[in-house]
Amino acid sequence: MVFQPESRLHLGAEAEVWSGTWMGRPAIKKMRRNRAWRHPDIERRLGYRRMLSEVRILIRIHSTGMPVPAVWDVDLDNGRIIMEKMQGRPLIEVLRDQTSEPNFIQSALENSGKAVRMLHRMAITHGDLSTNNILIDDQANAFLIDFGLSAVEYEVERFGIDLHVMDEILGASHPNIVNGIDNFVNGYLQYDDNQGPLQELSGGTPPTATEVLKRLDDVRSRVRYHG
User: Fold this and answer.
1) Could you give the residue numbers annotated as active site?
2) pTM as predicted
3) For residues 86-107, b (16+ Cβ closer than 10 Å) or e, as one string?
């Protein structure tokens, strides 16, 4: 791998992420971090499987034409991925930027909902849907990143949880954004309206947007009850 690092973007419990260039192109390098408390053999196998799953899902999504990072190089044994660097700012920055116009914020949230619905129609859940993992470009287009916890899924519960995580983050971290989750949900529903009936996939048919939103309401009720 010929990767030239420029700046570290993230240092988390599971991975370290760097921005730089690869073969002269803007790129992202993601490196798995070992968890010292796990047995080395278990850590190695678990890390290998998780990274392999992330690579497979990224390639699957990219092959459909959905704008997600292209995978350029992989070293599963050492836990490294080199991928395309997507353009845009994290949604969290857009929402916290006091110079962001209300119409731009509304479009960014609606387009974020559309991007998530596009993913869900492929029977894939994101697993870590936050305002850090959605990029927004100058035209308010939305791009999903960080598929480390994504999975192929057909049960409606996981799709509802994806939306519930976004609902909680918008409410807790961005309380000043009026109708934030409503705009997101509008985009989510609009994408289904525009695309029409779902296609049956190899594992079945993913839930409709309406079914996912009903499950979101169920998850909200359970959280309030147990809270």
Assistant:
1) 128
2) 0.93
3) bebebbbebbeeeebeeebbbb
